[in-house]
Amino acid sequence: xxxxxxxxxxxxxxxxxxxxxxxxxxxxxxxxxxxxxxxxxxxxxxxxxxxxxxxxxxxxxxxxxxxxxxxxxxxxxxxxxxxxxxxxxxxxxxxxxxxxxxxxxxxxxxxxxxxxxxxxxxxxxxxxxxxxxxxxxxxxxxxxxxxxxxxxxxxxxxxxxxxxxxxxxxxxxxxxxxxxxxxxxxxxxxxxxxxxxxxxxxxxxxxxxxxxxxxxxxxxxxxxxxxxxxxxxxxxxxxxxxxxxxxxxxxxxxxxxxxxxxxxxxxxxxxxxxxxxxxxxxxxxxxxxxxxx
Amino acid sequence: xxxxxxxxxxxxxxxxxxxxxxxxxxxxxxxxxxxxxxxxxxxxxxxxxxxxxxxxxxxxxxxxxxxxxxxxxxxxxxxxxxxxxxxxxxxxxxxxxxxxxxxxxxxxxxxxxxxxxxxxxxxxxxxxxxxxxxxxxxxxxxxxxxxxxxxxxxxxxxxxxxxxxxxxxxxxxxxxxxxxxxxxxxxxxxxxxxxxxxxxxxxxxxxxxxxxxxxxxxxxxxxxxxxxxxxxxxxxxxxxxxxxxxxxxxxxxxxxxxxxxxxxxxxxxxxxxxxxxxxxxxxxxxxxxxxxxxxxxxxxxxxxxxxxxxxxxxxxxxxxxxxxxxxxxxxxxxxxxxxxxxxxxxxxxxxxxxxxxxxxxxxxxxxxxxxxxxxxxxxxxxxxxxxxxxxxxxxxxxxxxxxxxxxxxxxxxxxxxxxxxxxxxxxxxxxxxxxxxxxxxxxxxxxxxxxxxxxxxxxxxxxxxxxxxxxxxxxxxxxxxxxxxxxxxxxxxxxxxxxxxxxxxxxxxxxxxxxxxxxxxxxxxxxxxxxxxxxxxxxxxxxxxxxxxxxxxxxxxxxxxxxxxxxxxxxxxxxxxxxxxxxxxxxxxxxxxxxxxxxxxxxxxxxxxxxxxxxxxxxxxxxxxxxxxxxxxxxxxxxxxxxxxxxxxxxxxxxxxxxxxxxxxxxxxxxxxxxxxxxxxxxxxxxxxxxxxxxxxxxxxxxxxxxxxxxxxxxxxxxxxxxxxxxxxxxxxxxxxxxxxxxxxxxxxxxxxxxxxxxxxxxxxxxxxxxxxxxxxxxxxxxxxxxxxxxxxxxxx
Lengths: 293, 797
Ligand SMILES: Cc1cc2nc3c(=O)[nH]c(=O)nc-3n(C[C@H](O)[C@H](O)[C@H](O)COP(=O)(O)OP(=O)(O)OC[C@H]3O[C@@H](n4cnc5c(N)ncnc54)[C@H](O)[C@@H]3O)c2cc1C
Hints:
The structure holds 2 protein chains of 2 kinds. Chain A is 32% helix and 26% strand. By secondary structure, chain A is α+β, with helices and mostly antiparallel strands. In chain A, strand 6 and strand 7 form a beta hairpin. The N and C termini of chain A lie far apart (46 Å). The relative contact order of chain A is 0.11. Chain B is of the alpha+beta class. Chain B folds into 3 domains: 30-38 and 493-640, Aldehyde Oxidoreductase, domain 4 (2-Layer Sandwich), CATH 3.30.365; 41-149 and 212-260 and 266-300, Aldehyde oxidase/xanthine dehydrogenase, a/b hammerhead (Aldehyde Oxidoreductase, domain 3), CATH 3.90.1170.50; 303-480 and 644-793, Aldehyde oxidase/xanthine dehydrogenase, molybdopterin binding domain (Aldehyde Oxidoreductase, domain 4). Helices cover 27% and strands 24% of the residues of chain B. In chain B, helix 17 (684-704) crosses helix 18 (756-772). Residues 29-37, 39, 74, 101-102, 106, 109-111, 113-115, 117-118, 123-125, 161, 166-167, 191, 193 of chain A line the site of flavin-adenine dinucleotide. Chain A: Residues 1-177 form the FAD-binding PCMH-type domain. Chain A: InterPro entries: CO_DH_flav_C, CO_DH_flav_C_dom_sf, Diverse_Substr_Oxidored, FAD-bd_PCMH, FAD-bd_PCMH-like_sf, FAD-bd_PCMH_sub1, FAD-bd_PCMH_sub2, Mopterin_DH_FAD-bd. Chain A: This is Xanthine dehydrogenase family protein subunit M.
């Protein structure tokens, strides 16, 4: 398990990194935390000719809150997100989600930019970006592009980024004060990629949803902002309503078959998550009683 | 702790002042390992060392039409690319059979495949280069032309006449069959009030050692000697086999085994790629290193447990079990493994089913079939988890059927603690077991009645928890009955040599080996205790065929019971020899002297007479001052093997407490208990950690671990992301208790403890899951108990 031979360049600035990427294009790979890239190289699943290490570019790391928007630099590590008081205050959902990513050793190196660029359909952060309405900022030699999270993820390990672009940051609107959230994922073991997961953000008023965003992951080739959430907004949620939303959800999913679960099991678990999410956000244990539809 | 045997009135060799026996002293090798100063095979660098990478078959079954290595040979650093045919000039093939397993057959296996590959992962060529990376680069350029053949993958159809035969010369795909009948089975079933049947399915899994298999082979043409550095459990076995197939004398082969990063039975076999590495060193006349990577480990380390076992139990309304019947089927890959064979697991299943219980009515059939999958062989607790899951699963099903509590049905049927010696329905002889004492202790430890009450109250809240109990027996301290009688050159005896050095310290050479279980520690504890010296004065040398007595090594829970007794007997002789010299020096008589705290003392008043260092000085440097006629022998060697009983059986019982999320099928382990009886406990911490580690491997089998093959014989999860090993986050607290029934076969009285945890853990968990699922009227008898399996059983998906 040794990677094929490759050339290595440590980028000295963002401009330098972009320069290298524009020259080498698809033959080059950006190295951030290396937690997805290096295993793939060691297994010889990929064999880039050049590694562009952006690890030293301090300007890409850090969290800033300004005018109701949180900006997170691409090189911000999972461990930084976990420890950040800004994240804890404004985006507790994200903090919860990050705690589910792998193990401390991996969180100490893995970065948000790497995770989003990797676009693993079972990853937590891409789904959170959908739920939280993030904007992803990509930079190329020609300048910056702002891409809505809903437009960014294009398939298994596929994004809207071109090989010449660097993901430099994400921008997240600070959710309104009264919003609540739910995060849960099913994994066989702590730290594993999810079999099915849900990152939800809601505004609840008088026992009803004013707003509800359901960001599912591991339910198809990319994260999904479930439209069936609409069935639960501005209505009195009863078992029947919930059951209808569950059925609508099942229609929206296009789960993959893998070692851990069949599509039928993923659909089932996604419905369990919806039931538990709604019961938790509305503080209505009774909705769980009969199990999912 | 309770003892089932009265303590002797006189002090034994072990029960001496400052004895280390029964104490949790830290292992002497801890500092070395924790400071990173261990020496594993991958750490070994020798001048002119070369690295081998194997080109492995991507097909489960295929003809090799041609190998083109020309491009690979031109790559930088490449020393050679060697095919199976070329290697066959220096090494002969082998057949993994044993004569006492009647009818067992297998085909000749080569170090590197010749003409045909029989599983995905079998080596077809070796690429040797100056570095592993260069060898991997070159290996990508070796082009092999294959013609795919039909692959036999499903064990259930392997014997169908319509299915192709893997080795035409064998006639069919049946490797081994054993039938056993005891008592009056049909009559017993006819007279039963209830008869319950079930089919138990066990996933194929593997040992996943932290350190992969690794070898450095160093042929020294000038000396005509091969030195093999290998992480192995059985150095003398490796020596014998390497010599045999390379056409050498054993004296021309030295096997050195330094630190080993876990073995679990994975490293007690002879693998084709290891044989190829020895042969490559001889062929290329230079040291060659092979370190399996993780993907290779999954594809070539032996797998285990792939069984489907039909079981049947008869029971009377009063809870008395009348009979057991099983029909076991297992698929072992294309070859019976060398030299221990792949029939042992099925054979053990036949031996062990029903073992804890009184009934003598027992019928069993086991069939072992060939398949085009990786080889299967002995892994920790060989056969035990199968036998225990089938037996204990049936016992619980019977209890459920007649409405008797699981603890109660065991009380009514377990062999009474005062009924020994006796024999099992398969003819195994038990010296002294303690099933009832163990069960009583377990029930108290887990507060069984309170737990049942908690379970009932949580049910009302739609929370479904279960309690599972599993009694078990464990084979330990095997005599020659295991392998020797079948013709394998695998020693069942072990030897220990102890000597006093010139400053009064002790050097101890033992033929047992250390892979992390504490062999070094327990040997030093025994030597220190018996001799009367502190442990820090005892240095233990293991794992070197040039420098230790001849012996079996460490496997089948035999190190403490057999190697430990050899250490005890050798040290007794050394002690006597020292006291004889001391008496001569001190003008006393040996009977009036003792050794305590590194000095010779008076028995009567404990007064120190002479330090061992002073005695050694006199013996080694001033023998002229000794009385005439005295020839001190400050070195002693003894060997030991059990003779009375073929195996020292141990017993125990485990319990699991868990919660099943019936919406998701996920199982959460809440607590696990074990009570076991391994006889004399030398180091309680080591024993408890052996039990816990064993339980964790059993829990892995119960919930997580499975080698997933597709219908074409492709292993689809050969990596650490998809093959789920149990991790600390999912493990419950494991409480361990003991009952102590020493074996009388040895003075030490120790039986083995290495496999007890693995033997019963999965059975306890499966029983607990079924207990939790009781209100849903469904039974699960397949492991691993994945959410998919449980949701399917519940009809949710
Ligand atoms: C054992 C293990 C378990 C894991 N479990 C989880 C889990 O449960 N959930 C989860 O989400 N992740 C998991 N991961 C992956 C981890 O979160 C990685 O950190 C993440 O996927 C990639 O981030 P990275 O910084 O390491 O990126 P790298 O590995 O350095 O790069 C990943 C990919 O993104 C590209 N890339 C990186 N940065 C940029 C950038 N700024 N612009 C453009 N392209 C870029 C690289 O070229 C590469 O193709 C696990 C990893 C391991 C090893």
